[in-house]
UniProtKB/TrEMBL annotation:
Transmembrane segments: none annotated. GO terms for molecular function: glycosyltransferase activity. Keywords: Transferase. The lineage of its organism: Bacteria, Pseudomonadati, Pseudomonadota, Alphaproteobacteria, Rhodobacterales. Pfam families: Glyco_trans_1_4, Glyco_transf_4. It comes from Thioclava atlantica. This is Glycosyltransferase. The keyword Cell cycle does not apply. The keyword NADP does not apply. InterPro entries: Glyco_trans_4-like_N.
Length: 382
């Protein structure tokens, strides 16, 4: 089966959760024998490291000032901005030449570029439409844009031959939008790749707890709620390692700067790290922290933490879509910041441990998590 997928970021070097999910879908679809072609339409200011092929469909430089105008929202207004531009015509012409069996939208933002052609073009109207949702986007967007986003997302949900959600809660919302008599939303939860064997040295000296996340603002909210302005509750000699794009959100915050010298004693800000470094951080961490307090969908970092079989200390919202994991040994779930800090201190002092087996956590690997979607390419979309 020939599948053409569209998204608003490159996946050549996946860093944040959305990129990782799309890269995993592409890998699993190809592994199953499908021809999977992913086309990103994106801003090179936000994603400067796309591959040469991916940069062919990046938003042209002359349009970037308009795309990043504060009166617009980059994802929501992306299709509107490039409609009528030669890039839009190129995307449609290239899609016709490819003549896909399935056109898949990773998140809803690019759908308006193709809606008319998918309805009336002699070649493209034969394609089945898949909406691969990462969240209920219109529930998370700024209130001033919610109505516009809801209309766009709702149109795609209603029209798609198949809707994929990351959680049962999201699926229930989409099913309500689709109404009776339509194919039920398929749940293909987030996951991660199994830990790769390696013996890289520890990136930090001494014991540390790891928190990693993108520059998504809720990651910073969860950090401040869970750890406070200074993670001074950690045992002497241990640190909190902060990795990923969220690092800058933390260190640039006045709450961090107010106690900069004290935070230097307890916090190791690492920034965005390469995959090999992240794997070493996970391997040598004494605890993996999930200070998630808000947001929608499910979190890839939760699957990653479970797969590495280290003690996990999480705020309860981090287990959205992973509720069964709370029964696993070594998974410690808090309902309050105070409980979170006490659990983390217990783990760092060795009072609490983890002994999860590889076979227990195999269900959180991408191969298992995406199997409903991959199976649907060969059944419900034929």
């Amino acid at each position: 089966m020939k599948i053409a997928a569209f998204g608003h970021y490159p996946i050549h070097r996946p860093l944040h959760g959305g990129q990782r999910r799309v890269a995993a879908i592409a890998a699993e679809a190809r592994r199953a024998g499908h021809a999977f072609r992913y086309v990103p339409v994106y801003s090179t200011r936000g994603y400067p490291d796309g591959s040469p092929d991916e940069r062919l469909t990046a938003v042209p430089e002359p349009l970037l000032d308009r795309l990043h105008d504060l009166r617009r929202r980059e994802d929501l207004h992306l299709a509107q901005l490039i409609e009528g531009h030669p890039l839009a015509r190129h995307l449609l012409d290239d899609l016709r030449r490819y003549a896909p069996d399935v056109v898949q939208f990773e998140q809803p933002w690019l759908y308006p570029l193709f809606a008319r052609a998918l309805a009336s073009d002699p070649v493209l109207s034969r394609a089945r439409i898949v909406y691969s949702a990462h969240n209920v986007e219109s529930a998370l967007i700024d209130p001033c844009w919610q109505a516009t986003a809801r209309a766009l997302e709702g149109e795609l949900v209603a029209r798609a031959d198949l809707v994929i959600a990351v959680s049962a809660a999201d699926a229930a919302i989409f099913d309500e939008w689709r109404g009776a008599g339509r194919a039920r939303t398929l749940v293909a939860p987030n996951g991660c790749w199994p830990p790769a064997p390696g013996e890289d040295p520890a990136p930090l000296a001494g014991p540390y707890a790891l928190v990693a996340g993108s520059a998504h603002p809720p990651n910073a909210t969860g950090y401040w709620t869970s750890f406070g302005e200074i993670p001074g509750f950690l045992p002497p000699g241990s640190k909190l390692a902060v990795a990923g794009g969220m690092t800058h959100l933390i260190t640039a915050d006045d709450r961090f700067r107010r106690y900069e010298r004290m935070n230097a004693e307890f916090v190791a800000p690492l920034g965005v790290v390469e995959e090999s470094c992240l794997a070493a951080l996970l391997h040598h961490a004494r605890a993996i922290c999930l200070p998630i307090t808000e947001g929608g969908g499910t979190n890839l970092k939760t699957a990653e933490a479970l797969m590495w079989r280290k003690p996990v200390v999480a705020m309860r919202p981090a287990l959205r879509g992973f509720e069964e994991a709370e029964a696993m040994e070594g998974v410690y779930v808090a309902d309050t910041p105070e409980e979170f800090r006490n659990l983390l201190r217990d783990v760092m002092t060795g009072v609490r441990r983890a002994t999860r087996r590889a076979e227990e956590v195999a269900r959180y690997g991408w191969h298992a998590r995406l199997s409903p979607l991959i199976a649907s390419y060969g059944s419900s979309l034929q």
